[in-house]
Every structure is written in C-alpha cells, then in structure tokens.
Amino acid sequence: MQYSEIMVRYGELSTKGKNRKNFIDRLGYNVRQALHEFPNLKIAAHRDRMHIQLNGEDSEKVMARLGQVFGIQNFSPSVKVERDVKKVQAMAIEMMKEKYHPGLTFKINTRRSDHKFKYDTNAMNDLLGGTILQAFDDIHVKMKDPDVTLRCEVRPDGIFLSYGKINGAGGLPVGTAGKAMLMLSGGIDSPVAGYLAMKRGVAIEMVHFFSPPYTSEQALNKAKQLTAKLAPYVGTIKFIQVPFTEIQEKIKHEVPEGYLMTIQRRFMLRLAEKIAKKRKGLAIFNGEALGQVASQTLESMAAINDVTTMPVLRPVLSMDKNEIIEIAQKIDTFDLSIQPFEDCCTVFAPPAPKTKPRIDRARQYEERLDVDGLIQRALDGIQITEINSSDEFMNANQESFAELL
Amino acid sequence: MIYFDNSATTKMDPSVLQTYDAVCQNIWGNSSSLHSWGEKAFNLLEQSRKQIADLMNCYPDEIYFTSGGTESDNWAIKGTAMEKRPYGKHIITSSVEHAAVMNSMKHLEKMGFDVTYLPVDDEGRVSPEDVRKAIRKDTILVSVMAINNEIGTIQPIEEIAEILNDHPKIHFHVDSVQAIGKGVEKLIRNPRVDFLAFSGHKFHAPRGTGFMYKKRGRMIQPLVDGGGQEKNLRGGTENLPAIAGMAKALRLLMDDEDQKVAHQRAIKNRIYQHISQFDKVHIFSKNDETFAPHILCFTIDGVRGESIVHAFEKYDIYISTTSACSSKKGDIAGTLAAMKVPEKIATSAVRISLDEHNTLEEADEFNRVFDKLYEEFKMINS
C-alpha cells in the first residue's frame, strides 16, 4: 500500500498542562532529528497530533525510525484520497482487502475537521460501511472492539483513510526531563539503564572509564558503539571518556584487596559527579541491579554512594537479569554487550571483593591516597566525542578494506 | 570458447581473484587471535559478513560462512534434525532436490527420520497443496529449493511460506544455490524462510566457500564442531581470502541485477526461439517468468545427452548433461525422472546454463552450430 501520510498520536504529553507546548515542540524537534535522513518529509506538530507527509519516502523505513522516538503513543499510516465519495469508497474496499478474512468484524470511524463537507460524520460512516458490507461476504459491523477500525478523516485538502495503529515507544520526549550522566561500562545493564532514562525524557551523556593498557581499544570502541545504538532515540549523544589507569594502579597498590572494588567505584562516582556538575547534569544514572554482583549489594551501594549527594538513579535496580536481557535484545545492544573485551570493571576485579564493605573502612583506606590530585588529573584527561547513530567504531579499519570488498 | 555451463561452476572474477590474492598475502592472521594482526583479519571477516548481510537485506549475525552449498544444505537439514529430534522426526522435501539435500535426507532416513518426498508436476514444480497435506504434528522441517538446477523451475516458495505461517515451529529451508542473482530475491527473502544455502563458486567467487542464512532465533546443532568460530556453530579457522572474495563477488553480482537478469533472459529466449522450431527437439524449461532466466534444458530425440555435449565441445561450446554433480554417473536426471519423463527421452537431456557475461552473439553462434549438429544427428535419429 502506498501511504501518503503518517498520523502520530502523542503519549502522556496530553496530561502535562502548561508544559504541553514545550513537550510538543521538543517532540517535533526529536522526530525531525530521528527522520533527518528523509529529506522529502513534511512534519507538522499540531496541538493534538503530528502529521508527517511522506511525499514519496518509504513508509516502512520512516515508521521503523518513528517507532524509536519517545513520547509517541502510536501512529497510523494513512492514504490520501480526493474528496470524492466514489474514490473514497473504492480505496476503503482496497484497504479492507488487505485485512479481510471470513467472519471479520469492522467499524468505520469518521472525523471531520472540515465541517463544510457535504456529508456529515454519520453519513460518511453509513456510506463507507454500506460499501464494505456489499463488497465482502461474511463481514460484520461491530461497534465494540471490532477486528478492524477503518478511520476516515475529512480535511479541507483531502480525505485520509487509515486502519491499524502501530504502537510507538511510549515514554516522554527525550530532553523534557533535563540532563544526566550515565555511567556506561560496556556490559548488558548500563545501556538498558540509559534507554530507560531516555524513555522518561532524560537527555543522557555517557561517562566511560578506560584504563589503557589494561583495557583495549576495542573495549572503548565497544562502549562508543553502544552509545551509537542508543543515539537513534535522540539524534546524537555525547560520549565522555575518562582516563582511569592511574587511579586504578594507585588503588591496587595502596588498598587491601577486599576494598579494591569499593574504592574504585567511589572514585568513579566522584568523577561522574564532578563531570555532571560541570555539564549541568542533575543526576547520575547507572546500571546497578540489586544483588547482582559484589558492588551491587545494599551495603556496597551505601559505601560507594557515600561520596556524593547528587541523586544516583538506578533504573534496572529491581529487575532480574532475564528482564534486563530482554530489553537489551529489544534495543539491540545485547550482542554488542556480550562481546568479550576486558573493561575497567573486570580487569582489576579482586578474587573476593567484600560484599558488605564498611563505610568507615573505605574512608580510612582512601586516606592513603591523594584523592584530589588523582581526580583532577583524570578530569584533565577527559575527551568528549559526539556520537551519531550511523557512526561505526567496531570496525576501525573500515577504509582499508573497502577496496578489497 | 563459449561457456554455457554456469550452473556447474562459474569463472572466478579477476577482481575477486585480486582480493583473494591480497588477503592471502597481507591479511593472513587468524581472526580468533587477540593481537592486532588477528584483529585485522577479524575486522575483514566481519566487514565481509556485513556486506553480504546488507546485500541479502538481513542482519550480519544471520550469515554463517561454510565450505559451500553442499555443506550449507547438509547443515540446515541435519542441524535441524539433531536440534529438533525431541519434537518430531518428520521432514518434508521435494523429489527434485539437489543431491546435497536428497542424500542428506537419505542419511537421516537411515537414522530413523521419516521423510516425505513430494511429487512434482510436468514442469517439475511442487504443489503447495501437497505441502499442506503432508504436514503432520511431528513435522520439523520443510526443505524445497528455490530454482531447480536441472531444468530451472522456480518453485512456489511464497505459497509454501504462506502455508507454513500457520505452522511457526517448522523450520523452512530453501536451497538457493541456483537462485542468487537471478531476479528472485523476493522469493528467497520471504520472511517465513528460515534457512538459505549459497555456494560461492556459482557466482564467480572461489571454490570451497559459501554461506548459510539462518534466521535470528532459529536453533540448529553444529555439523562441524571446533574452536568456537561462527558463534560456536561452525568450527574451523575461517577461509578468509575466499570469504572476502565471495563478499566482493556478491556485490558485483547484485549490482544492476535486473539488467543482468533481462540480459540472460534475452539470450535464453534467442536460443529457445531457435531450437523450438525443430520437430525432434523437446524443451523442458519454459521461456517465461515461471522458470529461471539462465537455465535451458532440452533434448534432441534419439541422441544421448552425452553425445550432444561432446558434439558441441568439438566447436568449443561447453554445455552439460543436466546436473554436473550427477552427469558422470550416467543416471537419468533426477528431476526429469520425477516429472515422469520417459527414460528414453530423459537420457537425451542437456542443459545450457548462462551467466551475465554470456552474449547474444554467443547465442547466435550456438544456434548455427546447433543447426549443423541437428543435421548430422539425422544419421542416427531419423
């Protein structure tokens, strides 16, 4: 079916009172960002709905992208027909053919934004319903919960027919809930946490700790690639890489083995907080799930969280591993996450980390270190990249092989 | 030389050979090695996979490299049988499959599997209705080729897919060795198809390489166990020079595919129109969209296929007695037998198979030689 337009229904926006206009503007911006590859689209974000005129662009591809934009409840591709009842009837039959099976139930749902049209809502419902009843055998009208609802919208510039609603990503438009830092390791959980943060409207920036030569270039590229996987929901994401080698080496040297992990995590959190403050972030997100590993017991979280008063938000806190994996697969980060490169969390992982570290001990061990100096030097070495959904990091040698292939 | 035996094998593309050569010399690390030399090979391997996936319009993790069409067929079939044995032992296939499929089925029968071989009509085509009727509760696999290698019949894959939509657990394998680059993408990329087998040397890539498409989520057992390659499903250090060559060959093949298919149809048509005028000629491959653009199978009554092949060979024209894989055994073609063509006629069958590099001039030359030979054969068949 050659669709001419996609009608987008907003999600929770409708309930946001005075902020509504901001939400809609932001959603319009996000949709434009997400669909920037389709130059012929005409996007108009109105108060109650958004209309995307396809102008010949591939509706399947556009809808695949649209399905990733947060703040959209659902959308319907529709066909534009001239304001000629005969033509509308013919198209209605065409469209029902695609759904028809014996015993099908349907209803017609007409809306008129042009009240000058010669048939009113009821008359249109009758005209179209009657045509369909005649055209198909064993088809029935049903008002409550029919198999197919054929929507007919009468507008000054034409009549738009659609059936079927495609579920959108839900949530709130990214950016409407402020900005925060996500601690991105490269594992399964943190990208999911990032996804969930964005789903509720938070614009995130990635904070990634890397420790060359203990961690490889590939581990860094993997984190960047994961960022690219999350970029379609917003357009672009800032990736902040923080050198962590010196801190890890010093900790390893000075701190008893049982507290290596706790102290490392305290440093990471301190750095994330400093970066957030500098970049006007309001909170820190991470992928911690309660009880999953030693650093994720309540005792550990308390000992680590001790270094900051900034909110540390953990969207996957109460999820089982399987539930997290399910989302990771849905957002296509799973296969990337399980690629086996050493990252900063695994390289210095002690064989038996304390699952119940004590805050006073952690503080006491840290006194052996030049905390401020270490933090400052790490901050000085930060590099920031802006990452796009089409960026490729895993195949760094791309150019050299293009000519072979 | 006129080479009309492209369904047997194709000439390697010179630029593919260049890639093969360059990879042998410059990127010979083991892609499983951790160091950057291995990393380089790994990157090329994955870029090759991605290129093939993009051309096939699927995900890179759905492409598995194998040693060729035969292994891919064996793997899809036996791998499914081993994986799904607890759920059932019934398999459905057609009676006109390539030996790689047919003999895998025979092997499984010996191991206690129950195989239904569907009959074909007089064009060598399976009836989707027969597939529907053959499905049982314990059916685990349906395997039907896309394009028949002996006479070029295009099988009703889309209709079978439609039927299998009601049986989501059954694996659907389509041997597509003859179908790649032949204008039937819609058919082999039907969303219900779970497995596809391809062979590199049928499209100007090196021998000893091929690939299998396995839809995400479909599980099969490995046939070749080893060191974890191909996501632990196909062991053995990857044949990287051939794989990179194949990725390139596939790109070249699919570039301008429509035009190439039309070109092959035009050549087929020219020969078809010519030889169909003769009384003693019987043509099995129809000259329309229901048959492959590149295969033309015919007989000259009373002359053995082998004699026809050698007669053309004297004029430096290379054709084949139906499938090259069975032509040396002197058996009558499996497909023709399944079509219930009398043995006397079937033993006369020969096959012309084209590629995009053949020309209309070659067709004219073939037709001239054909006329000459037809006259000569009158000595024995009139």
From TrEMBL, chain A:
Pfam families: ThiI (PF02568), ThiI_fer (PF22025), THUMP (PF02926). It catalyses: [ThiI sulfur-carrier protein]-S-sulfanyl-L-cysteine + a uridine in tRNA + 2 reduced [2Fe-2S]-[ferredoxin] + ATP + H(+) = [ThiI sulfur-carrier protein]-L-cysteine + a 4-thiouridine in tRNA + 2 oxidized [2Fe-2S]-[ferredoxin] + AMP + diphosphate; [ThiS sulfur-carrier protein]-C-terminal Gly-Gly-AMP + S-sulfanyl-L-cysteinyl-[cysteine desulfurase] + AH2 = [ThiS sulfur-carrier protein]-C-terminal-Gly-aminoethanethioate + L-cysteinyl-[cysteine desulfurase] + A + AMP + 2 H(+). It is an enzyme of class 2 (transferase). The gene is thiI. Catalyzes the ATP-dependent transfer of a sulfur to tRNA to produce 4-thiouridine in position 8 of tRNAs, which functions as a near-UV photosensor. Also catalyzes the transfer of sulfur to the sulfur carrier protein ThiS, forming ThiS-thiocarboxylate. This is a step in the synthesis of thiazole, in the thiamine biosynthesis pathway. The sulfur is donated as persulfide by IscS. It is found in: Cytoplasm. Its EC number is 2.8.1.4. GO terms for biological process: thiamine biosynthetic process; thiamine diphosphate biosynthetic process; thiazole biosynthetic process; tRNA 4-thiouridine biosynthesis. This is Probable tRNA sulfurtransferase. InterPro entries: Rossmann-like_a/b/a_fold, ThiI_AANH, ThiI_fer, ThiI_N, THUMP_dom, THUMP_ThiI, tRNA_STrfase, tRNA_sulfurtransferase_ThiI. One of its GO terms (molecular function) is tRNA binding. Pathway: Cofactor biosynthesis; thiamine diphosphate biosynthesis. Keywords: ATP-binding, Cytoplasm, Nucleotide-binding, RNA-binding, Thiamine biosynthesis, Transferase, tRNA-binding. The keyword Transmembrane helix does not apply. ATP binds at residues 183-184, 208-209, 265, 287, 296. Residues 60-165 form the THUMP domain. The keyword Phosphoprotein does not apply. GO terms for cellular component: cytosol. PANTHER family: TRNA SULFURTRANSFERASE. Belongs to the ThiI family.
UniProtKB/TrEMBL annotation, chain B:
PROSITE patterns: AA_TRANSFER_CLASS_5 (PS00595). Its cofactor is pyridoxal 5'-phosphate. Keywords: Iron, Iron-sulfur, Metal-binding, Pyridoxal phosphate. Belongs to the class-V pyridoxal-phosphate-dependent aminotransferase family. NifS/IscS subfamily. This is Cysteine desulfurase. GO terms for molecular function: cysteine desulfurase activity; iron-sulfur cluster binding; metal ion binding. It comes from Ligilactobacillus araffinosus DSM 20653. Pfam families: Aminotran_5 (PF00266). InterPro entries: Aminotrans_V_dom, Aminotrans_V_PyrdxlP_BS, Cysteine_dSase, PyrdxlP-dep_Trfase, PyrdxlP-dep_Trfase_major, PyrdxlP-dep_Trfase_small. Residues 2-366 form the Aminotransferase class V domain.
